[in-house]
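User: I'm new to structure prediction. If I give you an amino acid sequence, what do you actually give back? Let's try with this one:
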Amino acid sequence: MVMLVVIALAAACGASSAEIKTAKTAQYNAPSETLYQIALQTASEDYKIGDTNPSEGTFMTIEQWYSPEGGRQSSGAGDFVQLDDRSILLLLIVEIDGMDMGKKAIVVTPKVFQHLSGSPKPRELSPDDPNVPGWVHGRVDDLALAIYNAAKQYASP
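Assistant: Good question. You get back a string of structure tokens that encode the predicted 3D arrangement of the chain. For your 157 residues, that looks like this:
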């Protein structure tokens, strides 16, 4: 009985794959500027925002180093970050797709670099590279879902 309660609680903690799919495939009927502001405000709740381009409908989060397991690695003395082998440098790019008068989508794409011990610079990983840790996709899904929840009043049925 206790095990069933634990399983039910664990399942209730995260978003379902159907919710994430809905968030990632949603189309919106709203001005691009409205969607852009909603996405920007939502992303800024969990991330520091870097470059913004409202006229293009894009912005990105500031680069952040993470351990291979997904914990944030912050700078210490002299703004130096102690990196582990296979640490990840991640920034998220958010784009309002379909800037014309038709339906729009909000797309979240990770830009991922991996530190390899002994290498002079991190290697870039494409979003579908098998070396991208699962938690990176989890962060993308979480942000996409949060933006969807904030903008769903504009979502097409």
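You can read the tokens as a compact description of the fold. Here is one thing that stands out. The chain has four helices and seven strands.
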